[in-house]
Amino acid sequence: MLNVVITGGAGFLGQKLAREILQRGTLAGPDGLPQPVGHITLFDTVAAAGPDVPRVTTVTGDIGDAATVQRLIGRETHSVFHLAAIVSSGAEADFEAGYRTNLDGTRHVLEACRAIITHAPRLVFTSSIAVYGGQLPATVTDDTPQRPTTSYGTQKVAGELLINDYSRKGYVDGRALRLPTIMVRPGKPNRAASTWASSIIREPLSGVDADCPVRPDSPMACLSPRRTVDALIRMHDLPAAELGPDRTLLLSGIRVTAGEMAAAVARNKGNRRTGTIRWTPDAAIQKIVDGWPGATRSARADALGFTTDGSIDEIVQAFIADDLDSQIRSRQAE
Ligand SMILES: NC(=O)c1ccc[n+]([C@@H]2O[C@H](COP(=O)([O-])OP(=O)(O)OC[C@H]3O[C@@H](n4cnc5c(N)ncnc54)[C@H](O)[C@@H]3O)[C@@H](O)[C@H]2O)c1
What we know:
It is built from 12 helices and 15 strands. It is of the alpha/beta class and 334 residues long. Helix 1 (12-24) packs across helix 7. Nicotinamide-adenine-dinucleotide binds next to helix 1, helix 4, strand 6 and strand 9.
């Protein structure tokens, strides 16, 4: 039976990942063959809301504290999904907290894995397309160089390199996924500069107005949480030989403009009374968004069997099916 740790387990992707692993019931074990998942530990600074089942334990603590992470990950740990992070504008606003969580925290996870002398656990790390910056092509590909222009992006590139090096040394069987913007994110807006992309879909469908700080023609490289969670599990289960020494994989994200998001809401709203999108330009956010790639396309991910969404409609429909009811209920409870 496998023991799995998910850091950032109370967050958006950590919660969805835990539920999907429970649903599937197995992950690749140390020998690469599917084995039942016996236990999942959700680690976060805040208590995870669920899943409330005996196979799941919630542990609160700070990934920036080495001793805490040594207690979290031990000889009984087979797999770690390392998702804990302070997101882009949070890491930009607080330099020290960003480095402590996003860089020191990753090093602590790797060191705790290295201390397991009996085996090298599988580790999946969530990187970001914030590793790219400067003059970018309209579509970022496997060949685009990493030149981050934020602390968050720098911390993510550093994490990718550490994963390669600890894997090369045989201390961990590490893998990293470079994620585009994952949407639609349920709940409330967060501190990410991309938060509007989820807001202008989630809020109107919940009957609430939303502000969009960028022009309608502003593109975003998007991927649904469904495809992302599937990719996290696929990346975990992939034989290491298929990755080779470069353990980081870019995921393909489709190009969708803010205007196309708004149109997809109108097409998919059904009988719902929707909120309005207010176009309220914010020069600072527009500048950040203008520096991002409009799409990502990875031939390597294609060849390894990773998939991307067919259209923005598919992404909106997945949100309606998976999250809209609970989104509306939590709004009504406020
Ligand atoms: N969602 C996206 O669009 C996106 C895009 C690119 C990369 N990523 C990466 O994917 C991962 C998960 O993203 P998410 O959208 O679920 O983010 P999230 O903010 O919902 O979840 C991250 C979790 O990390 C926790 N955390 C923060 N500091 C911590 C600390 N010091 N110790 C322990 N836990 C801490 C937070 O409490 C939060 O629950 C992150 O690493 C993020 O950088 C996400």
